[in-house]
# Entry
Amino acid sequence: MKALELQPNAILEQTAFKNSHLETAHLEPCESAHGAMCPAIQAIELLQEKWVLFIVRSLLEGAKGFNELRREVGGCNPSTLSERLDTLEKRGIITKTVCSTMPPRTSYQLTSAGVALQNVILEIDAWSRQHLKPAS
Amino acid sequence: MKALELQPNAILEQTAFKNSHLETAHLEPCESAHGAMCPAIQAIELLQEKWVLFIVRSLLEGAKGFNELRREVGGCNPSTLSERLDTLEKRGIITKTVCSTMPPRTSYQLTSAGVALQNVILEIDAWSRQHLKPAS
DNA sequence: AAAAGCAGTATACATTTCATAGCGATATTT
DNA sequence: AAATATCGCTATGAAATGTATACTGCTTTT
# Structure
């Protein structure tokens, strides 16, 4: 819903370079529409949102409630967590189950698509041990 | 560290609120210091920064210059790209080679640690094809 | 009887990312 | 020959995103 309908190079073209038609020439299918149709780009955009990987990692241990999750991911603030959980649900990665409304009790758990993300996380984990050097 | 014993089936067995007795003060080693010592957390924090995965993905195709990279990742703004490249260099993921200062010519390329991230990206890619449903 | 926990929402502030202009020198286009 | 585009950034201010904190009404724990 934002300015994402712009083509990547439109940005560069807008910046005072009106005649830069040369720049626009080479665009891979994936990049051409900001990944609107490319699953890989969509996935990166999703997983790269703050807290998302931590949320998934935490839910791999089992279903959790809102505040429980909040603590275990490392202190995400409630507005952000709420928004992230919404989009994860829309994307079919988690399901939300309202066990009781008052007092409130909710449970979030991974779908099979969500569980499948374990491979990604294990890969990150393995990489981090072998190659990541600590921040200075 | 604990977060690595990920058990897919645990999900099925656990109902919500399994650890409610730990509400206030339970901090695992990993979480306790914001992941200061846990490689996995550090890695997620790094890879989750905006543009980082796109940068790595793009450099897997070969070394690139600043503006070239900027275009190919999908239009990252220069200040942000500059900052990301700095941290990626500090973390040992890319190397920066200044070929000429005036006129400027620089080349960014992955280190072996950077190339090793290909596994992560391939895993995301595979996952996205099989499980990610498009944003509504 | 008091305190703390549940799942969020609302508000106001802090941080991050953004678009854009600009640099001097060459390479390309007209 | 002259105008323009390009290189790799940095600087600026504005927009978008993330933050801490307070709050709700009801139950469980102390």
User: Anything to note?
Assistant: Chain B touches chain A through 62 residues (CB under 8 Å). The radius of gyration of chain B is 19 Å. Confidence is low (pLDDT under 50) at residues 1-32 of chain B. The CA atoms of residues 85 and 91 of chain B lie 10 Å apart.
